[in-house]
Amino acid sequence: MPPPSAEGVVSTSSPDAGDVGYSKDLKSRHINMIAIGGAIGTGLFLGAGGRLASAGPALALAYAVCGLFAFFVVRALGELVLHRPSSGSFVSYAREFLGEKGAYTAGWMYVVNWTTTGIADITAVALYVHYWSMFTDIPQWLLALIALAVVLGVNLISVKIFGEMEFWFSIIKVAALVAFMAIGVFLLVTQHPVDGQTPGLHVISDNGGFFPAGLLPVVVVLQGVVFAYAAVELIGVTAGETAEPHKVVPRAVNSIMWRVLVFYVGSVVLLALLIPYDGYTASESPFVTVLSKIGVPAAGDVMNLVVLTAAMSSLNSGLYSTGRILRSMAMAGSAPKWTGLMNRNQVPYGGIILTAGVCVLGVGLNYVVPGKAFEIVLNIAALGVLSTWAIIMLCHLVFVRRAREGRVQRPSYQLPGSPYVELVTLVFLAGVVVLMWADGDVGRRTVMLIPLIAAALVAGWYGVRGRVRAEASAAGLGTRDHIDSE
User: Is the pLDDT of residue 67 over 80?
Assistant: First the structure.
């Protein structure tokens, strides 16, 4: 194997030791539906209501802008996947293009993202289940624990079961959206009254136009909208467990763009055409708002089931992805060795159990502060999403530079506009952090966590550096230069 370059990374596309031992049981239909599931979640089903009320119909523009940058990120990741499919995904690519420090930072920030998201998910599940009166007497923490136990069990059985579960979760979400949009289009075509007035363009023009509150609320809402697309990077992790990634991944990635246009932008425009923007609220799904105003029976129950599905899907994906990422890190020495253990079903149970263990802390939060658990962890997860996307774009920048130097070869499936697209995306992500700071006390507290997280990462690096050096030496990747010269 060639020696490390001056940048501290191997100059060839060496395989990741963490990729050994996986089955290839994920089929094309699994990957495609996982791609849909990653692009559709509670950010649309629940979050769109409050954002419509604050930004008006121009929320569709915010979804389009954030969706475009999400597509850039996943397109860059797709090119890296075709360069070298890996269950370690962007952590493995960070190791190759940014060195071990980059892989360590990428991996642990992703774990922070999904463990805190997992806590938010089990909290959300408990809250959604409490919607039905028959469950109101069951403590919130117990419902959260039950949700975690069910999804953990599914993840530990086999990757095929995970794929099937995600497939049907995505089917439910897509079916709900398609059904609502069909109803909305019917209301528009037939001019059926909604809340006493006929729908159409006049609903927008008569209520302040496309920007009823001005441009500023649309800009501010971007920092919340971007997190609606969290999990689109999951497709990079699943690529390591499918038999034909070179065929499946490009199709799945390319489909994300039109899904964003149809499901996010299309549904928001439809919502704005049906009733005035100020008729929506943050406390209710906008789809429930519309359906209840036209007298659809049990609209709240149906949509509550859908958002419950979305939360379970997110928890399922989080356990799956962190299990694979932690195994890649464990094989390189930057995560505890036991997180790399696999069971006889070729499932990396060590990393999955670690993530679930942190989620158990979320059960404790639901016991101690049930009213604040969701808000506390969601803000921490936001930083993990931004760092993951930024690292993917940094990896792609280095990859393209090396391709121009003749050290690697780019696949035919490429991110267009490189390196400008990567740079613009990185500037956009930095701008989201600024917008978080401008978004009141909650956003400022989130940004103030950055120095604390950075300090924890530095301390952790010095704790694992010796083990990483030993693993790199044993793998023939060099010694100190490979670790310290990035």
Answer: yes
**How many CB atoms are located within 10 Å of the residue 397 CB?**
19
The contacts of residue 366 (CB under 8 Å, 6+ apart) are 122, 123, 126, 140, 141, 144, 373
User: For residue 11, is pLDDT > 60?
Assistant: no
How many alpha carbons fall within 13 Å on the CB side of residue 66? 28
Q: Cα–Cα distance between 343 and 85 in angstroms, integer? A: 22
The CATH homologous superfamily to which domain 21-463 belongs is: Amino acid/polyamine transporter I (1.20.1740.10)
How would DSSP label each residue in 356-409?
A: HHHHHHHHHHHHH-TTTHHHHHHHHHHHHHHHHHHHHHHHHHHHHHHHHTTSS-
Percent of the chain topping pLDDT 90: 17
Distance between CA atoms of residues 18 and 93, nearest Å: 12
Peptide bond between residue 419 and the one before it cis (omega within 30 degrees of 0)? yes
For residues 446-471, give the mean pLDDT.
87
* Residue 327 CB neighbour total at 10 angstroms: 31
